[in-house]
Amino acid sequence: MYSAIQELFYGSYSASDLPTSNVPGYRESLRHTIELSEQLRAGLSQEQKELFEAYCENANAGHALMGEAYFAQGFSLGVRLLLEALHAPRPS
Question: pTM for this one?
Answer without folding.
Answer: 0.63
